[in-house]
Amino acid sequence: MTRAEAYFDDAIRNGELSHAYLLESARPEEAQAAARRIVRRIACEKGTGCGNCASCRAFDSGNHPDIIVLRKEKDAPSVREVREQLLDDIGIRPYRFPRKIYLIDEAEKLNIQSQNAMLKTLEEPPAYAMIFLVTSNRNAFLPTVLSRVVSLKADEVRPEEAEEEAAADALFDYIRRAEFLTAAQMSGIAAEMKSRGMDPEIIITTLNGFVRDVLAVKSGAEEKLLYPAQRLTAFDWSARMSDRFLRELWEKLGTGRAALSSNGNPDLVIELVFLKIKEGLLSRDESD
Ligand SMILES: [Zn+2]
């Protein structure tokens, strides 16, 4: 499973598909395989990649009439190939299915002329059309191309990365609920996170990063968040915690880190940090 596929899980369910995507992986074969699973699923009549519907069967037999993979004679597609197979073709309605989907592998090899020629089509393809650029290097694209596509990571998530992400999610779950946690629950956090493979030092490091995000939100630099998925919580904290309190919390994290490195009790260290967070959320300090 790739992040891109996780994205399409939601997008297909919610009917929120865009017209142009860029799927990137440093490992091109992973991005290309993911792209095929994604377009197969988008084209599926059940939206699941069921394997039984006419679309899935056409795809699996290798001749889906409305999923078009750009063919090229040389290593890089020529402008002529892009024009004939994509730009001149996209206006022709799909043959059998509701959508017509274009797939361009190794899209970083499209030269500047081809990319320029594609701009208008990327901007406003016909409603039935979708375009997937599959690439190992998004830096090869014109900014005008990148601004017209939704970029997604198409690397296989390694099992250890998936575990780390799950642990971080669990930690942020506690962080979001800090004001409702009892002291007893707080004192269990370190042990639970340890069982998920996250050391108490990492809890402190994560909170340091998140406090930085809260400060970034306060200063209007919200495009630089370390944890963009937690932006709502960062906004919440920034509205409810004073600068003075955030400095105190920062110091508390430093004290906690020092305590851990001198063999302090991790359960207690993390509990004290969460008590401090709860205090900040409940105190409504207006001293800014
Ligand atoms: Zn199907």
Salient structural properties:
single chain; Zinc Finger, Delta Prime, domain 3; 5-stranded parallel β-sheet; elongated; binds zinc ion
Termini gap: 46 Å
The helix content is: 40-55%
Percent in strands: 5-15%
Q: Which blocks of ≥5 consecutive residues have pLDDT under 50?
A: none
Q: Give the topology string: H per helix, E per strand.
A: HEHHEHEHEHEHHHHHHH
Number of domains: 2
Number of strands: 5
Structural classification: alpha/beta
Text of the CATH class of the largest domain: Alpha Beta
Query: Which ligands appear in the coordinates?
Result: zinc ion
Q: Which second-level CATH architecture of the largest domain applies?
A: 3-Layer(aba) Sandwich
Tally of alpha and pi helices: 13
Gyration radius over CA: 24 Å
Write a brief caption for the model.
This protein has helices at 3-13, 28-43, 54-60, 79-87, 112-123, 143-146, 159-176, 183-186, 189-195, 200-218, 231-240, 243-261, 266-283; strands at 20-24, 67-69, 100-104, 129-135, 150-153.
SSE layout and pairing:
Layout (H helix, E strand, L loop, with lengths): L2 H11 L6 E5 L3 H16 L10 H7 L6 E3 L9 H9 L12 E5 L7 H12 L5 E7 L7 H4 L3 E4 L5 H18 L6 H4 L2 H7 L4 H19 L12 H10 L2 H19 L4 H18 L5
Parallel strand pairs: 1-4, 1-5, 2-3, 3-4
The structure holds zinc ion.
Question: Can you put this structure into words, describing what you see?
Answer:
The structure is a single chain. This protein is α/β, with parallel strands linked by helices. It folds into two domains: 3-153, 3-Layer(aba) Sandwich (Rossmann fold), CATH 3.40.50; 159-283, Zinc Finger, Delta Prime, domain 3 (Up-down Bundle). It is built from 13 helices and five strands. It has a five-stranded parallel β-sheet with strand order 2-3-4-1-5, covered by helices on one side. α1 packs parallel to α2 and α10 (200-218) runs antiparallel to α12 (243-261). The longest helix has 19 residues, at 200-218. The protein is elongated, with a radius of gyration of 24 Å. The chain starts with a helix and ends in a 5-residue tail after the last helix.
